[in-house]
Task: inverse folding
């Protein structure tokens, strides 16, 4: 469980990135953080593992004040997956790359190897164990970086823009992987602009603008709120757009439909009725 | 790495900023050469006292002071190390003089780099008949120093999040901890260099032999003034150095 209490932060003490952010993320939740560029999303998740410390306010991770824990200690609980995999890959094989993080966190050689194998298998990277991460494609490197965090089995997984550069199938694989982790009790937090990805897989959305939380709640209601959409410069999910279009033709149809099945039913109704 | 700031351009309105980069280059070289001509504390201190007003005139005293604070560790190290191992007759005086000389040298060049925008520098080089490709490479290198710094911080964050404890452990461990920072930094830089090269070529870099420039630098009266004054001072000092024995007070050494 992660709690932020009135957290504010400014880079170099001048460039304000967070203004009094409070939120609570319970264990086994799936939460998406959305917002404009520069809204403070990445700054927010960097507070979860202590990379940034609040200038005012407090952060609690699993009931402990994050102030008293080092980044390395917090990283056992909160795994952060970065936007740019190239910022962390530096060894000459995928396998070593994954074992490196595990050994930093104090796992023995044998356990590290075993976890490494499992994780690679889970991500469909079995064939890559001995390959150099630098020779892989962008999307593959991204998955290696993800694997290096997954292997440590954090209880909270925070991902920064995980869907960028992934094709539709990889995106689905990623989603099902995150769902599996979530089923096993892992909290999943994702920062993304991919609104389809959010509506499909994340029940809760936190919308940010200008370092503040402008909306926090059920994804369907946050993302159908025109004010929020406007402030966070989002475009409505295609399904919601379809619902709105239908509503204009047939006023009895609700504007707030967000599931494919709902839309299908409505269309079937409308067509059947005529 | 805060001491590098003293070599980074800052946008300001100041008489030094307004000078032509070429005249500033002459000035900086003369100042640096002067610092290299003497190795006694008093002349170097005088030199230092002449440099300070120039930094003030460039409105960069605060930045200069922060950088020097960042450098103080190295300066103390030079003093201690030289005092212990120097073979000069008066090692302490010698190492103090060396340190002042280093500060003077850095200040001289910082006067140039603090006040010359990378674009101006490359334009100056081009007008001094350096090939465009080289001038451009140089200004690109300067342009990317801050970007590289940001990248280094991002990489440090990424590695810390994997449990690398950068500020813990003995010296050997700390040195080994540099590897996870430096390798990604190099890889990222090379990747970026390649993509910049591709994007430049796709915008027609090097397509025509003769380039035209939006702005051309022009020497003004004050620039000629600076250049002539610098050269006169240099000649005077070379003359003093070679033919005039320095008085005793100028060769004063510290008593211990």
Result:
């Amino acid at each position: 469980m992660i709690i932020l209490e009135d957290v504010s932060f400014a880079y170099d003490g001048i460039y304000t990135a967070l203004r009094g952010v409070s939120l609570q993320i319970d264990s086994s939740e799936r939460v998406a953080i959305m917002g404009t560029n520069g809204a403070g999303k990445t700054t927010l998740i960097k507070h979860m593992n202590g990379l940034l410390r609040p200038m005012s306010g407090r952060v609690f991770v699993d009931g402990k004040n994050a102030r008293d824990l080092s980044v390395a200690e917090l990283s056992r609980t909160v795994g952060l997956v970065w936007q740019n995999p190239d910022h962390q890959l530096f060894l000459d094989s995928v396998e070593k790359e994954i074992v490196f993080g595990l050994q930093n966190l104090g796992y023995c050689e044998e356990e590290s190897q075993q976890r490494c194998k499992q994780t690679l298998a889970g991500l469909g990277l079995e064939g890559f164990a001995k390959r150099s991460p630098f020779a892989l494609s962008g999307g593959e490197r991204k998955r290696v970086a993800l694997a290096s965090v997954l292997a440590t089995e954090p209880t909270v997984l925070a991902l920064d823009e995980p869907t960028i550069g992934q094709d539709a199938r990889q995106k689905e694989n990623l989603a099902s992987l995150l769902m599996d982790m979530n089923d096993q009790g892992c909290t999943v937090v994702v920062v993304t602009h991919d609104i389809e990805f959010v509506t499909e897989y994340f029940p809760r959305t936190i919308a940010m603008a200008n370092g503040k939380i402008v909306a926090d709640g059920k994804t369907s209601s946050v993302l159908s709120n025109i004010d929020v959409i406007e402030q966070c410069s989002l475009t409505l999910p295609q399904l919601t757009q379809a619902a709105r279009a239908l509503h204009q033709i047939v006023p009895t149809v609700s504007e707030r439909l967000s599931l494919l099945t709902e839309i299908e039913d409505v269309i079937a109704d409308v067509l059947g009725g005529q | 790495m805060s001491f590098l700031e003293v070599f980074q351009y800052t946008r300001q309105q100041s008489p030094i900023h307004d000078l032509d980069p070429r005249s500033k280059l002459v000035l900086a070289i003369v100042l640096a050469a002067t610092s290299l001509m003497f190795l006694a504390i008093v002349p170097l201190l005088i030199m230092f006292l002449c440099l300070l007003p120039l930094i003030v005139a460039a409105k960069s005293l605060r930045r200069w002071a922060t950088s020097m604070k960042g450098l103080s560790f190295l300066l103390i190290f030079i003093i201690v190390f030289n005092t212990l191992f120097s073979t000069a007759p008066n090692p302490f005086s010698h190492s103090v003089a060396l340190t002042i000389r280093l500060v003077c040298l850095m200040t001289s060049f910082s006067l140039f780099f603090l006040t010359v925008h990378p674009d101006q520098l490359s334009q100056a080089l081009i007008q001094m008949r350096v090939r465009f490709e080289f001038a451009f490479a140089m200004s690109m290198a300067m342009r990317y120093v801050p970007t590289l710094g940001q990248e280094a911080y991002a990489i440090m964050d990424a590695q810390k999040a994997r449990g690398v404890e950068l500020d813990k452990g003995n010296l050997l461990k700390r040195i080994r901890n540099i590897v996870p920072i430096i390798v990604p930094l190099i890889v990222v830089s090379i990747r970026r260099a390649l993509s910049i090269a591709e994007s430049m070529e796709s915008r027609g870099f090097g397509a025509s032999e003769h380039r035209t420039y939006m702005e051309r630098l022009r020497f003004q009266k004050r620039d000629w003034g600076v250049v002539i004054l610098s050269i006169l001072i240099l000649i005077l000092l070379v003359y003093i150095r070679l033919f005039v024995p320095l008085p005793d007070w100028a060769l004063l050494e510290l008593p211990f």
